[in-house]
């Protein structure tokens, strides 16, 4: 592909007549675009849509340099003698157009296959005219990048929409309340937010702000990007102290986004115009420190959500209503599972019932790990600075770590378990006969999270990670990764989860050579392909020490959560000089497979609480049965039933309150107890119980001994 790009004050073209049979249908009218980068484009033999997308990625970077946010794609056959077939060429041109729009670039395209009259006024700066070549061979050499372009991620599309929503919110607030000072806005895990200073907002303001946002959407205003020197940017944002602070800390030109008369400092991607946003809703308001530091001012943070269509918004609101009903924080209080205290923000206090669930999860975990040849270890929570420097965490993860001084030495509270497992490996000389060596650990880790992102069990500062570090030879990698995937599949099917898989590749903040990364990524891909697993390519999202396969589980209301991961590490063995004696008598370097199944135990519990809506399967339920005597005369018999079940190892209670049976049943239902065992005069005389399940179905005349065996079988099968 050859492109001649020209930065123009204006471009004008008029379709005159069709040049080829495959020409697109279009109106014969004059078109004029101002402040645009004209792309005279010849698509060549062998070019693919991926090449067109890759070209637009690079052009997007060039737009930033010249302070322009508009392109005019102009099919132009006259700069190549190796032209692609018309149908193939049009596919590439359309891929360029779609990619440009997805990047938030204002995009125009001249019709394909026409003779056109063309005029332009080219700017006079040194970068105004440039020629570029993009080849299919180059695309083949960077296949990872092309795959990302061809399978453009939904997350990135959402981020563009939500960046646009944040800017739309800021523009609306500024129009309604000019005295408000602008903080900043970003996409969030769900939707977007923007921070403001100078006014106290509440839910009562939402209706007025949403009305203004909808008005701007109906106006179909363009999101325009430009770059300004610092002095001009300072003048533009005079009086906006937070924006001036951002400008001061930025090197080079300042990226500006313009929406009507509203301006902001932003490097995000945006939709072409506000009419592309189909629906918006503000969801909550709270506080957030400027730049996330408690040393700075507290700003008002308004959260919102945006969708391309009203139908998507309605589906989201219905899902959100369900999510509120099963919120693990609400259920955690109601079922007395856990709590959070001011004395330890972001750190969970697990109550007795919560500990039962946690221990059942860990019992299952230990049972399966013993069966698969793992050995459990435990390593210290605090280790000295030199270890974290060697592991790379000091340089790549320091901002998320906690520190302390002991005997005038600097120590860190571990954010991850891998260095401890590595030190355990190195305590003795290892032989190839010991590999694969599977060391598993329920390790307590601490990671610094900003207070504004803490969210119940889902985002905490202290949690237990179900890690394992598997030390293998090069030849064992694929087989061992495949076994881990089998384990993950078994675990998730036990809990009734569906899942999808993503392959995450080299991030910008990484260690090790490109060749090592290519080799590691190729091995993980090979395992997935051999197992015929569908997966998404998640570009640039691997761990800093290696690529990974992530598993995203789908809960009962359709939300997805990334939990299990398998990470291939070719680098830490080098850093720690790890060795084993091979069959040839020489020393070799092992490879480390890092993996978790649950991930953070606390977070997985939160997901389970919402997935089951608090109604845990029998094997996990904190209380498995409640014995309910109908009258005081039946209490002694009911206690004998409870005692018999407790001796069998079941978790059972006796409700001997002097209240009605209906009240006792309702109380047990609120606590999500799987079985209610009712004992009245009739049952007492017959030596039986009436068994009522959570759904209200009742079986009469059941022998306690028979029901105990039934419960044991259900527990064993983990239904």
Describe the protein in words.
It is a single chain. By secondary structure, this protein is an alpha+beta fold. It is built from 22 helices and 33 strands. The strands form 8 sheets. Strands 16-20-21-28-25-24-22-23 form an 8-stranded mixed sheet. Helix 1 (49-66) packs across helix 2 (86-102), helix 10 (328-334) crosses helix 18 (601-611) and helix 15 crosses helix 16 (514-530). The longest helix is centred in the N-terminal third of the chain and has 23 residues, at 154-176. It is globular, with a radius of gyration of 31 Å.
**Which class of secondary structure composition applies to the elements?**
alpha+beta
N-to-C terminal Cα separation, in Å? 58 Å
Helix content: 25-40%
Q: What Rg, in angstroms, do the CA atoms define? A: 31 Å
Mean pLDDT: 89
Largest sheet: 8 strands, mixed
Beta content: 25-35%
Number of strands: 33
Which shape, going by the Cα principal axes? globular
Strands side by side in the biggest sheet: 16-20-21-28-25-24-22-23
**Weakly predicted, low-confidence segments:** 137-154
- Oligomeric status: single chain
Number of helices: 22
């Amino acid at each position: 592909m050859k492109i001649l790009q020209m930065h123009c004050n204006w471009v004008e073209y008029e379709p005159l007549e069709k040049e080829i049979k495959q020409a697109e249908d279009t109106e014969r009218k004059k078109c004029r675009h101002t402040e645009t980068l004209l792309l005279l484009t010849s698509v060549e033999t062998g070019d693919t849509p991926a090449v067109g997308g890759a070209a637009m990625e690079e052009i997007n970077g060039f737009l930033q340099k010249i302070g322009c946010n508009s392109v005019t794609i102009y099919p132009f056959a006259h700069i190549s003698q190796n032209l692609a077939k018309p149908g193939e060429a049009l596919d590439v041109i359309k891929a360029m157009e779609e990619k440009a729009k997805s990047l938030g670039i204002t995009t125009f395209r001249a019709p394909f296959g026409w003779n056109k009259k063309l005029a332009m006024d080219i700017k006079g700066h040194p970068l105004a005219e440039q020629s570029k070549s993009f080849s299919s061979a180059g695309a083949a050499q960077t296949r990872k990048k092309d795959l990302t372009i061809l399978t453009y991620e939904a997350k990135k599309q959402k981020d563009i929409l939500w960046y646009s929503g944040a800017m739309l919110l800021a523009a609306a607030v500024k129009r309604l309340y000019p005295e408000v000072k602008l903080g900043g806005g970003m996409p969030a895990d769900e939707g977007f937010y923007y921070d403001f200073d100078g006014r106290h907002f509440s839910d009562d303001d939402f209706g007025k702000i949403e009305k203004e946002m909808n008005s701007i959407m109906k106006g179909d205003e363009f999101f325009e990007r430009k770059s300004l020197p610092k002095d001009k940017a300072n003048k533009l944002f005079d009086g906006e102290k937070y924006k001036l602070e951002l400008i001061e800390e930025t090197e080079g030109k300042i990226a500006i986004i313009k929406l009507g008369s509203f301006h902001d400092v932003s490097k995000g991607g945006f939709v072409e115009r506000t009419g592309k946003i189909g629906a918006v809703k503000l969801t909550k308001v709270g506080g957030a420190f400027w730049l996330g530091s408690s040393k700075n001012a507290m700003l008002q943070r308004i959260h919102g959500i945006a969708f391309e269509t009203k139908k998507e918004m309605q589906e989201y609101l219905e899902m959100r209503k369900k999510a509120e009903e099963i919120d693990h924080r609400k259920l955690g209080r109601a079922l007395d599972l856990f709590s959070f205290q001011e004395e330890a923000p972001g750190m969970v206090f697990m109550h007795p019932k919560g500990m039962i669930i946690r221990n059942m999860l860990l019992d299952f975990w230990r049972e399966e790990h013993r069966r698969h040849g793992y050995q459990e270890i435990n390593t210290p929570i605090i280790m000295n600075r030199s270890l974290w420097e060697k592991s790379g965490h000091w340089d790549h993860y320091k901002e998320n770590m906690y520190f302390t001084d002991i005997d005038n030495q600097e120590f860190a509270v571990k954010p991850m378990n891998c260095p401890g497992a590595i030190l355990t490996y190195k305590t003795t000389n290892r032989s190839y006969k010991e590999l694969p060596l599977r060391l598993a650990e329920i390790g307590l880790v601490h990671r610094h999270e900003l207070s504004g992102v803490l969210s119940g069990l889902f985002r905490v500062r202290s949690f237990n990670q179900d890690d394992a570090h598997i030390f293998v030879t090069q030849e064992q990698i694929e087989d061992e990764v495949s076994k881990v995937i089998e384990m993950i599949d078994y675990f998730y099917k036990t809990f009734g989860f569906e899942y999808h898989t993503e392959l995450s590749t080299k991030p910008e903040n990484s260690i090790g050579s490109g060749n090592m990364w290519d080799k590691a990524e190729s091995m993980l891909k090979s395992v997935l392909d051999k197992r015929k697993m569908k997966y998404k390519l998640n570009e640039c999202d691997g761990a800093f020490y290696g690529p990974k396969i992530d598993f995203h589980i789908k809960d009962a209301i359709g939300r997805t959560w990334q939990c299990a991961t398998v990470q291939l590490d070719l680098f830490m063995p080098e850093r720690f000089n790890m060795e084993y004696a091979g069959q040839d008598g020489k020393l070799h370097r092992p490879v480390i497979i890092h993996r978790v199944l649950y991930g953070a135990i606390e977070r997985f519990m939160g997901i389970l609480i919402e997935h089951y809506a608090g109604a845990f399967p029998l094997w996990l339920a904190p209380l498995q049965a409640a014995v309910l005597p109908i009258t005081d005369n039946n209490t002694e018999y009911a206690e004998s039933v409870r005692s018999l079940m407790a001796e069998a190892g079941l978790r059972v209670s006796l409700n001997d309150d002097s209240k009605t049976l209906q009240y006792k049943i309702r109380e047990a239902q609120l606590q999500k107890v799987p079985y209610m065992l009712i004992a009245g005069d009739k049952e007492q005389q017959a030596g039986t119980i009436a068994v009522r399940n959570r759904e209200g179905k009742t079986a009469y005349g059941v022998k306690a001994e028979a029901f105990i065996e039934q419960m044991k079988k259900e527990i064993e099968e983990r239904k």
